[in-house]
Amino acid sequence: GQIVYSIAEETERGASVGNIAKDLGIDAATLSARKFRMITGSSKQYFNINASTGALSVSEPIDREQLCELKSDCLLNYELVLENPLELYRMEFKVLDINDNSPSFPLSEYHINMPEFLSPGARFALPNAQDLDEGANSVQNYTLSPDEHFYLEMQIRGDGSKYPELVLKKALDREQQATHRLVLTAKDGGNPPKSGDVPVIVTVLDTNDNAPEFEHSVYRASILENSPSGTLVVQVHATDLDEGPNGEVRYSFSNTTSADLQRMFSIHPHTGEVTVNGILAVQRPLLEMLIEARDNGAFGLSSTAKLLVEITDVNNHGPEITITSLSSPIPEDAVPGTVIALLSILDKDPGENGKVNCQISENLPFQLKPSLQNYYSLVTSELLDREVISEYNITITATDLGSPPITTQKAVWVQISDVNDNPPVFGADTFDVFVEENNPLGAFLYQVSASDPDIGENGRVSYTLRNSTVAGSALTSFLSMNLANGSIYAKRAFDFEQLRSFYFQVEAKDNGSPALSAAITVNVYISDQNDNAPAILYPTSQNGSVAVEVVPRLADEDYLVTKVVADDEDNAQNAWLSYHLAHSSDSTLFQLSPHTGELRTTRSMRSTDFLKHKVVVVVRDHGDPPLSSTVTVGILLADTLPQVLPDFDDSGEPQPLLNATNIYLIVSLACVSFIFAAFIFFLAIIRL
């Protein structure tokens, strides 16, 4: 918004102007917290704001004439900037004029030479007084000290401006009075009025009775502000009806023309050509000068004409871009429309040359919005994503409407700060882990890894095992995890025969606030080792005795004696079993199928075959290294099941009635008996 205050110049220091907090509807208690500051283009800080009450007071008395020179309206522009949120208010101070300057004349005294032969009614231009005040406080009227020969009369030029003229009321007589001393007084319209006077000394001459006269009372010209030195502005011309030296006219600037203008322009004394004499370093579009034409008589007569020079602006100033306020970095979750920076763009050229178009690149998530006069706000137009672009170099281009246009660019560096808007991400939905059974305690199983595109604490990921049970026990009794790097370790040895697979979930959580997390399922597959020997289920023996199978005495060829049944708790090839005959009392009578474990006769039984046989069957798996188990089977040839099963000795061979072992026993018994008898006989002989 904008607020306008009026204040009289020279108001003393500390005087109250108003209350900015009340006038703008701002809580005065928040001014200090919102880092208020007043921005102005003036070299002095004329006003001060109380941070506690919002009271606006004068900090430096204002001299309107020094500040605004001859401008009709004297304005001071301030901007009040508040942060959190960023706001801009424009304050305009209208400085009111007071009658603090008296009229003054450029010279301390003026001399006028008058030929004595002039008739009453002759007129002589008097100097204009200058008053730095404006309006009613400026010069309003002139008075002349009483004199019987002269009176004062006001004249109006073609542009409406007034000037005083000294009018001859009574013919002069140089012989009676050669010099007349008058006092010209200028009064302003202030209350109370102020005045200034200057002595006017009239010297009576008796020569040259015609003053030069200009063709026009006001000359007008227009030049470009960048016109080079020597450029012709206008040529003035005045005529003098006198002849000879009294009719020769010389041109010059009047003493009332300011010294600055006399340095910027020069006038040829003979031709009246007014030319540019330097750089036109002025801010006013219209310049006013008085040109004097004076003849070469012994007592030269003069007249004045006004020259009004209009300075036509050219586009010689580029736009000036000033960053008044900048918020950087900004969070990536800033909503569209968030104000990032406040820019002031000013072009010193007037008119169209001072109008500016401002823009930024279209492919950026920002836009410029006009604020107050000559101010723009740089705001976000889209949602930001630091993970895509973390910083922006925004080039602001300002181009005026001059011909040719002038372009100015300024870069604004905006960084995007991170917010925790991305959860950790795993590389897959599930992970499969394979581990052999009988693993050592603390064995490394797997390392999960999740990435988080955020930075700092928002991107630091830690890992935990989610609570669950495996085979009725807590997961933490099976596994442990490194929270920092996601490594998973076994806390116990796995047994394939008890647990072949299980799954659990790992949670990855960042350290943001609030924290974001993601979970992944890990499938653990336990691979088998050959750690179990085959278990023989049939035939079985009790108390270490040999399992006995009864076979008909005259069984046919390929008769099924028995089938060895075994099982292996291992898996795959570790559980693939094969059957082998490790020992047979008669290798020609029995055969064993290596795949089914069936024990069959290889031929028909004969009456001469032994009645008892023993075979040893080895059951072997295909592990690496292989494991095996054995079973001993006793085979009895009988047509009926005997009430008492015979014993099978350790030799594993069936015994006939007089087999080799029995013969050895008989021979041994006979030998022992013979030795005993011989011993008895020997004792008897000795005794006798």
From TrEMBL:
CDD domains: Cadherin_repeat (cd11304). This is PCDC1 protein. The chain crosses the membrane at residues 663-686. One of its GO terms (cellular component) is plasma membrane. It is found in: Cell membrane. One of its GO terms (molecular function) is calcium ion binding. Potential calcium-dependent cell-adhesion protein. May be involved in the establishment and maintenance of specific neuronal connections in the brain. Residues 6-105, 106-214, 215-321, 322-426, 427-536, 561-648 form the Cadherin domain.
